[in-house]
Write a structure and sequence with these properties.
alpha/beta; Rossmann fold; Dihydrodipicolinate Reductase, domain 2; 2 domains; six-stranded parallel sheet; five-stranded mixed sheet; 34% helix; binds NADPH dihydro-nicotinamide-adenine-dinucleotide phosphate; binds the ligand O=C(O)C1=N[C@H](C(=O)O)C[C@H](O)C1
């Protein structure tokens, strides 16, 4: 496949290497200095850019009739706008807050645990995420996806970064060099239950994004990693 990379930072560079290893070619490496996104004969676009640039990038790919997968986080207030745009242009789009196979399995474990714990009022759920200090958004997109599943299965209606709020608390820690660690904790007076996913590097995110790009390149519609991985 010919792949257009929208964002050529930490993730874009690893995606390039793994994509070349899988026999793909890279036709565009767009960064902040790129003035015009020329998609040429790209089969698919992969967007790992910045919260404030993702919407424009995704729309440009859809307008150029290029299927696009996006892993950029921090722009989801505009998600429905992108879905409408994709549908009206008969395009193809897939967003995942986390592309790694391990986290997508972890999402399912979180959902089952949330269903079991939903009516256990003695236990207080909370989420902790740890990322590198260059990360622009907080909480992480992955933590938001985890929180949404807990909210769906409990009396909570919102998540919060404020430890003093009554909403579902997400603690976002920033530590140099951490690729991404997420924990769900249910705490009671007598014990606690904790599940945790630790990314050792960024390769799992990059591989998942390429697998998603390979999957979507001949499709039309709006998809998620559940469609790609056939889990859940
Ligand atoms: N869903 C997932 O599995 C994962 C998601 N992420 C998310 O992906 C995003 C990128 O992460 P990461 O690679 O670490 O970030 P980086 O900051 O390393 O890279 C961002 C890239 O976007 C480029 N960029 C800036 N403006 C534009 C623009 N207008 N068009 C195209 N590219 C642009 C930057 O260019 P320049 O260098 O010139 O500034 C840079 O190359 C983040 O939102 C992060 O949260 C990260 C890992 C996994
Ligand atoms: O910015 C990152 O690095 C990551 N971002 C994603 C998120 O916000 O959840 C995925 C992963 O945790 C790494």
């Amino acid at each position: 496949m010919k792949i257009a990379l929208l964002g050529y930072g930490r993730m874009g560079k690893i995606i390039e290497q793994l994509a070349l290893d899988r026999g793909h070619t890279i036709t565009l490496k767009a960064d902040s200095k790129t003035e015009h996104l020329g998609f040429g004969d790209a089969d698919v676009a992969i967007d790992f850019s910045l919260p404030h640039t993702a919407v424009k990038n995704i729309k440009s790919a859809i307008d150029a009739n290029v299927p696009v997968v996006s892993g950029t986080t921090g722009w989801l207030d505009n998600y429905n706008d992108i879905v409408d745009h994709c549908t009206s242009k008969n395009g193809a789009f897939l967003y995942a807050s986390n592309f790694s196979l391990g986290v997508n399995i972890f999402f399912e474990v979180n959902r089952v645990l949330a269903q079991l714990m939903g009516k256990q009022n003695d236990y207080q759920p909370s989420i902790e995420e740890i990322h590198h200090t260059q990360k622009l958004d907080a909480p992480s997109g992955t933590a938001i996806t985890l929180a949404e599943a807990i909210i769906e299965n409990s009396d909570y209606s919102n998540w919060t970064l404020d430890p003093n709020s009554k909403d579902l608390h997400i603690e976002a820690k920033r530590i140099e060099g951490v690729p991404g660690t997420h924990s769900i904790i249910y705490d009671s007076e007598v014990d606690s239950i904790e599940i945790k996913h630790t990314a050792h590097n960024r390769n799992g995110f990059a591989l998942g994004a390429i697998v998603a790009a390979e999957w979507i390149h001949d499709k039309k519609g709006v998809f998620s990693m559940k469609d790609v991985l056939n889990i859940g």
